[in-house]
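Q: I'm building a small set of examples for a reading group on sequence design. Run inverse folding on the following structure and report the sequence directly after it, with nothing in between.
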């Protein structure tokens, strides 16, 4: 396929950072339309029926869902591979990606970041305190315990950095900005691995871009992309006002 590739989605989203990390690893050039899904216009809804980001547009092909997009990237640009060679390890990496996309994001994303940042700032709705407290005090520590049992003392989950690492690590930034992060006393492997992800992989600069988005008014987001080495699309799918999608939590 020819022509420029577009990724619709704001790098504050861990799913968008997963896709952009894979693009950087594989040397795939993309242009970004950095909208928040809640402000997507009708053209966005036509491309993304669940009104979710990321969306991948390459020629006539439109793909939704980060896992589908990164699998497509792996099949069309196989080098360097981001899945372990061994089928057993490859299956484990897929499980870690599934765990990250569903349960980890449910707690760190929807119950913490969405409640504490997106609801008050973007949707102008009050956060649900009981949900936040349970996620912070009970659910997140259980997830950290599980991950502590999976993460090696050195390197990445499957030796070389892989799709498993790029699926798991991004949501920790969203939790960190609302004051939830694993402590090195209780979860030393998890904390050391997160530091390696920031310092040694393409996730570090992507997290910097995400931090800049979180602290900069929406009107400057397209410029921010250029300042961080990414191209912006000419056209935006921003509607200028926020609304929920069909899959947004209540
Ligand atoms: N399974 C999807 C999840 C994507 C997702 O939930 N993205 C969030 C942003 S982090 C979103 O677009 N939420 C808007 C909504 O659900 O209304 C993927 O892997 O891409």
């Amino acid at each position: 396929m020819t022509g420029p590739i577009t990724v619709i989605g704001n790098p504050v989203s861990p799913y968008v950072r997963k896709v952009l990390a894979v693009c950087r690893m594989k040397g795939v050039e993309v242009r970004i339309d950095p909208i928040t899904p809640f402000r997507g216009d009708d053209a966005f809804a036509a491309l993304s029926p669940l009104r979710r980001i990321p969306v991948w547009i390459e020629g006539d092909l439109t793909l939704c869902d980060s896992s589908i997009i990164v699998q497509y990237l792996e099949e069309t640009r196989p080098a360097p591979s981001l899945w372990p060679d061994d089928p057993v390890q490859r299956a484990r990496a897929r499980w870690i990606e599934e765990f990250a996309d569903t349960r980890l994001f449910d707690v760190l994303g929807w119950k913490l970041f969405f409640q504490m940042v997106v609801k008050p700032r973007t949707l102008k709705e009050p956060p649900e305190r009981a949900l936040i407290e349970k996620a912070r005090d009970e659910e997140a520590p259980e997830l950290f315990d599980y991950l502590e049992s999976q993460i090696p003392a050195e390197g990445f989950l499957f030796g070389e950095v892989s799709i498993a690492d790029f699926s798991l690590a991004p949501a920790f930034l969203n939790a960190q900005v609302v004051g939830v992060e694993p402590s090195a006393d209780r979860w030393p492997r998890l904390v050391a691995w997160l530091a390696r992800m920031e310092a040694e992989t393409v996730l570090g600069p992507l997290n910097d871009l995400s931090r800049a988005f979180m602290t900069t008014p929406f009107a400057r987001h397209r410029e921010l992309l250029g300042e961080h080495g990414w191209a912006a699309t000419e056209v935006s799918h921003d509607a200028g006002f926020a609304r929920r999608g069909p899959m947004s939590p209540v």
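The CA atoms of residues 113 and 174 lie 6 Å apart.
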